[in-house]
Amino acid sequence: MTPTPSRTPNTEHRTIVLTQTERPCLLVFDLDGTLIDSQRDLGAAVNQTRADFNLPPLDLKTIVGHVGNGGRVLLERCMADTGVEIDAAYARWKTHYREHLTVETTLYPGVADGLRALAAAGHTLAVATNKPQAASDLIIRFFGLEPLLYAVLGGGGPCALKPDPAMIETLMTQTGIAADRTWMIGDNYTDLECARRAGVRSLFLTYGYGETRGETPTLTLNSFADVTAKFV
Fold it and tell me: Which position among 30, 32, 41, 187 bears the catalytic label?
């Protein structure tokens, strides 16, 4: 039987206290649904692509439900059963999305100040996202987060997409930070499975638009301010 998706906070794990030997940490963040709310810009690009092929728009909830496994999979899901050739649709989507990267996309509350506080506390911060690398870099730069991050790993680069553990494993290798001091922080089962397969701890954020899908996070929190308070 398929596990029922859950967004209920796992309060059993809220009492975790990091010891001095577990600090500072490598904190690896997902992007969409974790640092940024990009729902409306993603939706606009998808529906412009559908319009290019004379297809009616999809509602935002449907589109967002397909987010999490990279841009191409998003298009495959949003163009399913339409008969449209996916390579052509994906090329159109990439063009439209480049024009909508930061039109309505915003940082979630507490992210900018929180990342600055986490960096000041000595933690190494990175982003591991299935969003295409070029789009991820532009968004990070737009919001002025680049100086706070050790690296941004995105789709289309040398690492396989999450839930493959390659992004986390690469970051641990590059930074020399061990698994017992590494956390994957995100809003989707892809982040949680990635963490489990990499042998690191995971933190699930309930405010995003993903699902746990049966994965059990080490810790569940409800806001980015809670993340900052946990690690600073």
Answer: 30
What is the arithmetic mean of pLDDT over 134-157? 96
Mean pLDDT of 74-101: 92
- Whole-number pLDDT of residue 67: 87
pTM recorded for the entire structure: 0.89
Element (H, E) at 230: helix 224-231
3-state secondary structure of 139: helix
Dump the DSSP string for 1-27: -PPPP-----GGGTT----GGG-S-EE
Residue 41 bears catalytic tag:
no
Whether the Cβ atoms of residue 121 and residue 24 lie closer than 8 Å to each other: yes
Contact present, 74 and 92 (Cβ < 8 Å): no
Asked if the model's pLDDT at residue 18 lies above 90, the reply is: no
104 vs 110: CA distance, rounded Å? 18
For 206, the token pair is 């309930």
CA distance 227 to 29: 11
Q: Which domains does the chain have, with CATH numbers?
A: 22-37+105-231 (3.40.50.1000), 39-98 (1.10.150)
Helix axes 224-231, 111-120, angle to 10 degrees: 10
The dihedral through the CA atoms of 50, 96, 162, 31 has a sign that is negative
| C-alpha closest to that of 208 among 129, 113, 119 | 129
Whether the CB-CB separation of 118 and 71 falls below 8 Å is answered with no
Give the percent of the chain with pLDDT over 90: 81
Using an 8 Å Cβ cutoff, are 190 and 168 in contact?
no
